[in-house]
Amino acid sequence: MGVTQLFALIFFSFSFLFSESKLCLALFSKRQSLWPALDSAARRDSARLGVLPVYLERYAESKPCDSCHRLSEDGMEFFLGNALLRIFTAAWPGREVELAAPHWELLRSRGVEFPRDLDSLNLPWDGWVGGEEPLIYRPREFMAAKTDKSRLDKVAGALGFSHVFVVRGFRVEVGPKFRDAHTGSLRWSWRGALYNASEGRFEWAVDFSEDRSLMDLDDDLEPGLTKVLGDEIRKLPAELEALLGREPR
Question: How many angstroms separate the CA atoms of 20 and 224, rounded?
Fold first, then answer.
């Protein structure tokens, strides 16, 4: 192993100690398109999932970072949308998964406008997700307003999606040590929800955050997100069975 490779390995191992990821996944019922085995009466359908465009709500740099190319505002929006596309494609084999493009001509002809139609959403995140538990079973789909469902129905219908995944509250804080150095801190978070437009109901919601106090600011964030969210998606049926088994009857 060369000196450069050894240094990179040491830095990666060291920076891992200064990283903390949190994820809370809340299910609203056992009728889940992503996990049809949770409901013995569920029938496999020909779902078509659209990951809706991702927009930053807040972006901040403690100082300008000339070399943090991955962590620009456009770069972070591009990264998260495409990472979610790949995570859902892997988790939902045999189904069509697509990243909606805000410039599609089809949107304008059918009265859909991004980001306006997403900015107007007022989903009840605090009642859905939050806290320290990685998995919550909460029959709280009813908390979503009909006006928000109607907005997502319009978007899904215009694009021909049976399901849409919407991201809100996307925030990024970058703290480079120096203007021309890659090393620094990163705090980023977002919330998302899967909406079943064909049935007019939300199926689940997620709250994700990560705090890295020391990292190479040009590192690819997707492997970490895929491990945290992708692993949770894969393990969920067994974890939900264990969770429900611990609840009093």
Answer: 11
Distance between CA atoms of residues 131 and 193, nearest Å: 17
Question: What is residue 218's predicted lDDT score, i.e. its pLDDT?
Answer: 79
Angle at 241 between CA 83 and CA 91, to 5 degrees: 20
Query: Which of 62-66, 72-76, 207-211 is the least confident region?
Result: 62-66
Q: Are 25 and 228 in contact (CB under 8 A)?
A: no
Q: Which residue has the tokens 């106090």?
A: 213
- pTM across the whole model: 0.87
E-state strands within the chain: 19-27, 48-51, 56-61, 96-99, 135-137, 163-176, 183-196, 201-216
d(CA 69, CA 193): 28
